[in-house]
Amino acid sequence: MSADDAMPYWHPELETRHADLIERLAPLVPCLELTLHLPWIDAIERLKRERGAVIMAHSYQSPEIFHGVADVTGDSLALAQAAATCDAELIVLCGVHFMAETAKILAPGRTVLIPDLEAGCSLASSITADDVRALRERHPGAPVVTYVNTSAAVKAESDACCTSANAVQVVRAMGAEKVIFLPDNFLGAHVAAQVDVELVLWNGRCEVHEQFTVQQARHARERFDAALVAHPECPPDVQAEADFVGSTTAMGRWLEKARPRRVALITECSMADNLRARFPDVEFIKPCNLCPHMKRITLPNIHACLKELRHEVTVPADVSARARRALERMLDAGRLEHV
Ligand code: 13P
Ligand code: SF4
User: Among residues 296, 263, 317, which one has the least CA distance to residue 4?
Assistant: First the structure.
């Protein structure tokens, strides 16, 4: 029997032990599901303490993970920042593989585990280190800015990394007339519209955000009278329809200021669940697209990960050293963005 199958059971004490969590999760998770999740959450909390581990979860993780077991939550930039300053010996990264690699590069002395090694990303798999080298040959002298949604090998070929939260700042900080911006074509077009720099783009797409259509966006506005907020990985016509386009963190900031009665979040489905807890007065409409990679992470495989100390993410030392330089420039721009 694998650790996944060793299912912890419900017992009434869990209700008292986790009363606060039950209150937080009740509006987000159906009642019956909650009774299935709580035994896992309880067992994970225990193992986490025994191991001295920190669980970091991306905003696209399901609510029972995001609210139930995570110590650190946020977008790609926030998780990278947290990894860079983490004191714990063991980091469990509940997100996709490039996020775990990023954590390992920024915290080389820590053990970084991911609950499912197959949790990939269509953007990360759209480009290789050879592709980056070929682009450099075609555009001599142009610096390479790479979205953090890439492999460590691609980061190692780059001058700087960025996330959707600081892409514009990082491109401007290059101080060049022409920048190679990889691999997300739609994010690239979004950045190009805001900078006075020629951008050479790649044809990578997020398989989740590229599915949203302008018809869906209009339907949300007309049928539900909802404000529209879109992620810059969405197609340009969807972005053009939105009241606000921004990264995962920027969406939260916009909601804080605008406080719409109703909002359609044109992004991964769990974002709405996770933001709903922060904005109980806002009604969230979910044009629901789930990221199949993010959803590979579950409470049972987090439990197995902590119990069996699997799956460790490693990065070869030479790749790590070069990728780290690019990531540090991203963190510098992140610091600027948050002042
Ligand atoms: P951010 O976390 O940078 O907003 O990116 C969204 C995303 O698609 C992560 O995979
Ligand atoms: Fe990659 Fe898109 Fe999934 Fe993010 S949501 S991990 S960009 S496929």
Answer: 296
